[in-house]
Design brief:
alpha/beta, LRR_dom_sf, globular, Leucine-rich repeat, LRR (right-handed beta-alpha superhelix), 14 strands, 21 helices, F-box domain-containing protein
């Protein structure tokens, strides 16, 4: 590594840009490494998992760039400032920065003063400084309620900075006038992520305007707050937003719509997004009983380039219809369980069976997969067939579920676990690295040991489950034995939320 030149090191460190621990450790190796890492760390210094309230050095660095006149004015205001000059800094840190996180900037400003007015003034000076020092602005995050208090697009030099904005995170609590200002300056946003805190908000007008002026919008995400309440159920609360993104079907390839309420407009627009590679959507309890969600409408959703597909687990029929019409490029299918599994799934036995079949018929490239099915012989057979056909599988989330008011007996849970592990030993592809189990399945000590012994010789496996019995001494001893032998990477019991979150790292 010591012989690698700066360009090669930069490419390596770029791959670690989300790993702050590794990047910070690289700073201490030598001067070359430090000079190479600093621009990467400071590209977006607000994104790392650190406590910004305790990071006085960030406050010191930003303040050091302020002019003497501004510092003097702030001091007369009663704000205590550090005396370090930017000329004493080893690097011109702010020249590397390409991002603003409003919430984090507010936190850092509070280090100088906890008084509301003083904090407001400090933030204002910081934003004015950023507009001067940043070479360009790529990312803007103002998605926390009530954090944005300055119309920063009116600052000197702001027009030049905002023209380069690529990613915007925001929420519907922000006034429409703010979005009108952004629409005036920002027309090349590629990623737009919106948290919705109010149904029928007047702010939707400003957001819709911002969407319409975009010329290269590729990623659009809308997420309703869990506490959102719809006071006027007779009207489509998303109509204006949906119609706006409907004008961007030629550019959008990543679409995530997390709506809490029905949107007839959405179902008119969705068939037009022919370029989608990523789709995350809910059809609000799909059923033939609702004309908005008819099978005929779903068959119009043809996404030949689709690679990632997320949908609620109870919409199995909608899911397999979309999979059937995909182009065979799907790599990830995630059935989102909401809280605990319940009995929302319609025609569960038939639809879960068809879902499995559609996956192995249409998704030969699948790598990450969620399956929900009952512990019946026919379903186990189809699951085994899927394992034999889908040879690129890396991660499985298996939801074995019995639709009944009564929880299955312990004996049945153990039998379900035994049958699953037998199938995995017989037919799991060598690519499989991770398995997650939830709901009606358990593993006896003997069954688990037999499985791990037969897994020997394959790549190390990670397993997550809800079964707290793994914490017992005899299970811990068994798990440690096979971890030490390299058979498994990890095997542990975690929360329901972490098991079903496929981004949770084991």
């Amino acid at each position: 590594m010591s012989k690698l030149n700066k360009d090669i090191l930069f490419l390596i460190f770029e791959e670690l840009q989300d790993d702050s621990i590794s990047l910070f450790s690289c700073l201490m190796v030598n001067r070359l490494w430090c000079e190479t890492v600093i621009p990467i760390l400071w590209r977006n210094p607000w994104c790392y998992d650190i406590n910004y309230y305790n990071k006085n050095y960030l406050f010191t660095i930003i303040v050091s760039y302020l002019s003497d006149d501004i510092k003097e004015s702030l001091t007369r205001q009663g704000i205590q400032l550090p005396t370090v000059s930017c000329k004493l800094l080893l690097f011109d840190y702010l020249s590397f920065c390409r991002s603003i996180d409003v919430h984090t900037i507010n936190i850092i400003a509070s280090i100088g003063s906890s008084l509301a007015y003083d904090n407001f003034i400090l933030q204002q000076e910081f934003y004015g400084l950023f507009m001067k020092k940043f070479q360009e602005l790529k990312y803007l995050n103002m998605s926390t309620i009530g954090t944005i208090k300055h119309q920063i697009f009116y600052f000197p030099e702001a027009k030049l900075r905002f023209e380069s904005l690529c990613e915007l995170k925001c929420d519907t609590s922000i006034a429409s006038s703010y979005f009108y200002g952004l629409a005036w300056l920002c027309q090349y946003i590629q990623r737009l992520i919106i948290d919705n805190f109010g149904v029928y908000s007047d702010n939707h007008h400003g957001i819709a305007k911002l969407i319409r002026v975009q010329k290269n919008l590729k990623y659009f995400e809308w997420k309703d707050d869990l506490n959102l309440h719809n006071s006027r159920p007779g009207r489509d609360p998303y109509e204006e937003i949906v119609l706006a993104i409907g004008n961007k079907v030629d550019t959008i390839n990543h679409l995530k719509l997390d709506f809490k309420y029905r949107s007839p407009t959405k179902h008119e627009i969705l068939p037009k997004f022919y370029k989608l590679k990523i789709l995350s959507v809910s059809f609000y309890y799909f059923s033939e009983d609702f004309s908005d969600f008819s099978e005929e409408r779903l068959k119009m959703l043809v996404y030949r380039d689709l690679e990632i597909f997320e949908i609620d687990y109870y919409e199995l029929k909608a899911a397999y219809i979309i999979i059937e019409n995909s182009g065979g490029h799907l790599k990830k299918i995630w059935l989102r369980p909401i809280y605990m599994i319940d009995r929302h799934v319609r025609n569960f036995y038939d639809n879960s069976l068809i879902f499995i079949r559609k996956v192995y018929e249409r998704c030969l490239s699948i790598e990450y997969l969620t399956l929900i099915f009952p512990p019946l012989k026919q379903h186990f057979n189809e699951f085994e067939k899927l394992l034999k056909i889908c040879q690129n599988l890396k991660s499985l989330l298996l939801v074995i579920y019995v639709q009944s008011d009564a929880r299955p007996e312990e004996k049945q849970l153990l039998e379900n676990g035994k049958e699953l592990l037998k199938i995995l030993i017989r037919s799991a592809p060598t690519s499989l690295r991770e398995i997650r189990f939830i709901c009606h399945v358990k593993f006896s000590l003997e069954t688990l040991e037999e499985f791990l012994e037969k897994w020997r010789g394959r790549p190390a496996l990670s397993i997550l489950t809800l079964d707290c019995i793994l914490g017992e001494k005899k299970y811990k001893k068994l798990i440690n034995k096979y971890k030490n032998n390299g058979v498994i990477k990890n095997l542990k019991c975690v929360s329901f939320v972490n098991v079903v979150n496929m981004d949770f790292k084991i």
